[in-house]
Design a protein that fits this description.
- This protein is α/β, with parallel strands linked by helices.
- 24% of the residues lie in helices and 23% in strands.
- Strands 12-25-26-27-23-24-13 form a 7-stranded mixed sheet.
- The radius of gyration is 31 Å and the shape is elongated.
- The two termini are 14 Å apart.
- Bound molecules: adenosine-5'-triphosphate and magnesium ion (MG).
- Keywords: Aminoacyl-tRNA synthetase, ATP-binding, Cytoplasm, Ligase, Nucleotide-binding, Protein biosynthesis.
- Residues 25-335 form the Glutamyl/glutaminyl-tRNA synthetase class Ib catalytic domain.
């Protein structure tokens, strides 16, 4: 095993805080907004925060950032829980909800008002925008900025009591309308909005804004290092202002890192939601998506995702990670752990003319050639088999080493066979291939040192089970880039190929939905957890066997 010696920049900050006595026990958090399913980017945040808490013997908080009732739903809360647990981020059974702090947040707002650090403003949203100025021009003070603390307190209490219509007043921080940082130009802390909240119902008609709520949530929970993504860098001065003016003793510290982006896939809840809403994919767990539920359904394992995050590392500047790297990680994880099975995706019949008609024999097949510990299994072999259509050619292409008339190949783990002929229908489609076998080559071993150059897989026809196989490509067209100029997605028309009549070896009948395997020569597959039944088995291809990516 390779040891990672150098610490990432977040670890360096934490270690310094510990050394210099600013931090006794590390507390991190993962704060999803329950407005969609989690995706691979969130997995990075989960594993990073959870990993740091573990590394430094601290606590990891799993908190729903549910302060905005418009887009949030219970369905999302459930799916997010499932995903966090699946990734193995142990949150000690307690989940935090930001909405549980609404009372405390309200108290903080009153505290700021009394200090003269917040005021109620009656400007309309348009006026507020106008007064805010631009990046090159300073803003102007609101005419309501100099209201006394007493007046502000009364107005704010009346806002809470429901005396004013939605949008007619806001509570603002009193900071600096000329600040070079737009976020510091008297940002809004509270707005009036009559909306039912999934946790607090109709108790509140005022809701805190994200930039006010988030630092408070962290501070209430004693979070020490609040790790977020780069788009919040410009908000850090406001984050610091909130925890400082609210006079917390050990205020949390915000640290930003770069979001994880993958090439040729759609990350971003907004875009994924659109694909789901438009019916382009079969729900949030469609295996072509990179939501965690989709990756799970496709057959990705938590270990493969952890491995991927280790390879990616933590950075301070944006870049896109090659999707092939994720594929490398799942291949690497399954390689020695999963059995290798025979499945013929595009079957054509092979008849061994000199094999006894009613004979069946059981050949020994290693479950995993690279891992002897996985043992062997018995697989039936007889006169009629299925092989892949592309393993026979009427005309031999250059360098082709599989079946063509006169050529000898190895049927994997069984016998050497020599092709003698074929039948075709009126359209020229091959219907049956004929061979003779060499009984002395049992087990696929050469009886006299003669070599064959091709090895193909097979399934005994009378014992084969029929299956549906789904092959996936990335959902976006790699050539064209992910998004069109108008913001729509460049869909890949070939992202899903359904094969209805694949034949799999009988052993596969013993497995359950969610189990995964290598299908020899064609890739890693997972029995679909949604659509697979005893009568109708469905296999998703997780990844093909070949890789374009090699780790350093
Ligand atoms: P999206 O951009 O997909 O809408 P979000 O940032 O709005 O995601 P939240 O629920 O607010 O989603 O995010 C929860 C946590 O996950 C935040 O700390 C956020 O910074 C982090 N996160 C979101 N997307 C990524 C990503 N691509 N890479 C790393 N961390 C991410
Ligand atoms: Mg968000």
């Amino acid at each position: 095993m390779e040891e990672t010696i150098s610490k990432n920049f977040i670890e360096q900050i934490i270690e310094k805080d510990i050394e210099e006595g600013r931090c006794k026990k590390v507390v991190t958090r993962f704060p999803p907004e329950p407005n969609g399913y989690l995706h691979i980017g969130h997995a990075k945040s989960i594993l990073l925060n959870y990993g740091l808490a573990k590394e430094y013997g601290g606590d990891f908080h799993f908190r729903f950032d549910d302060t905005n009732p418009t887009k949030e739903r219970e369905e999302y809360v459930e799916s997010i829980k499932e995903d966090v647990e699946w990734l193995g981020a142990d949150y000690d059974g307690s989940i935090y909800f930001a909405s549980d702090y609404f009372d405390k947040m309200y108290e903080c707002a009153e505290f700021l008002i009394k200090k003269g650090k917040a005021y109620v403003c009656d400007l309309t949203p348009d006026e507020i925008r106008e007064y805010r100025g631009t990046l090159t021009e300073p803003g102007k003070n609101s005419p309501y900025r100099d209201r006394t603390p007493e007046e502000n307190l009364q107005l704010f209490r009346d806002m809470k009591a429901g005396k004013y219509p939605d949008g007619s007043k806001v509570l603002r921080a009193k900071i600096d309308m000329t600040s070079g940082n737009m976020n510091m130009r008297d940002p809004i802390l509270y707005r009036i909005a009559r909306m039912e909240h999934h946790n607090t119902g109709n108790k509140w008609c005022i809701y805190p804004m994200y930039d006010f709520a988030h630092p408070l949530e962290d501070a209430f929970e004693g979070v020490t290092h609040s790790i977020c993504t780069l788009e919040f860098e410009d908000h850090r001065p406001l984050y610091d202002w909130v925890v400082q003016e609210c006079e917390f003793e050990n205020p949390p510290k915000q640290i930003e890192f770069a979001k994880l982006y993958l090439t040729n896939v759609v990350t971003g809840k907004r875009y994924i939601k659109k694909l789901v809403d438009d019916g382009i994919v079969d729900g949030w767990d469609d295996p072509r998506l990179v939501t965690l539920s989709a990756l799970r359904r496709r057959g990705y394992t938590p270990d493969s995702i952890r491995k991927f995050m280790e390879l990616v590392g933590v950075a301070k500047s944006h870049s896109s990670v090659d999707y092939a790297m994720l594929e490398y990680c799942i291949r690497d994880d399954l390689k020695l752990k999963r059995p290798r099975m025979a499945a013929v995706l595009d079957p054509v019949k092979l008849v061994i003319t000199n094999y006894p008609d009613d004979q069946v024999e059981y050949v020994d097949v290693p479950n995993n050639q690279e891992n002897e510990e996985m043992g062997t299994r018995k697989v039936p072999f007889c006169k009629e088999l299925y092989i892949e259509r592309e393993d026979f050619k009427i005309e031999r292409p250059k360098k082709y080493r599989r079946l063509y008339i006169g050529n000898e190949v190895r049927l994997m783990n069984a016998y050497f066979v020599t092709c003698t002929g074929y039948d075709a229908d009126e359209d020229g489609n091959v219907t049956t291939v004929y061979c003779t076998y060499d009984p002395a080559s049992r087990g696929g071993n050469s009886p006299d040192g003669r070599k064959v150059r091709g090895t193909i897989h097979w399934v005994a026809a009378p014992y084969a089970k029929q299956a549906e196989v789904r092959l996936y490509e990335n959902i976006v067209d790699e050539e064209k880039g992910v998004y069109n100029e108008d913001g729509s997605i460049n869909l890949n028309p070939n992202s899903l190929t359904i094969i209805k009549n694949a034949c799999v070896e009988p052993t596969l009948g013993e497995y359950k939905p969610g189990d995964s395997f290598q299908f020899m020569r064609t890739g890693y597959f997972c029995m679909d957890i949604k659509d697979s039944t005893e009568e109708h088995r469905v296999f998703n291809r997780i990844v093909s066997l070949k890789s374009s990516y090699k780790p350093n």
